[in-house]
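Lecture 7 notes: from sequence to structure.
We start with the chain below.
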Amino acid sequence: MSFGPRGRPWDSPDLLIDGVIDDGDLVLEADGAHGSIHVRMGQVSSVRPGEHGWGPGLHCHGLVNGAPTDVWLV
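Predicted structure tokens for the same chain:
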């Protein structure tokens, strides 16, 4: 992702343009500051509201390319 672990959204924000559920997977597509982003999260095991450093959002946990991954939708 374009922010990295220490990035700040006002430095190089991503703009979510599409988020859908496709065949049980969470599919996110965005025009990021560093190019297009396409993330497909399968086997979503949890989606819960929470508080991220950038504000309230949804914390999603599942698999991306077979690896356990957390994604915040803020």
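Points to note: The chain has a mean pLDDT of 82. The radius of gyration is 12 Å.
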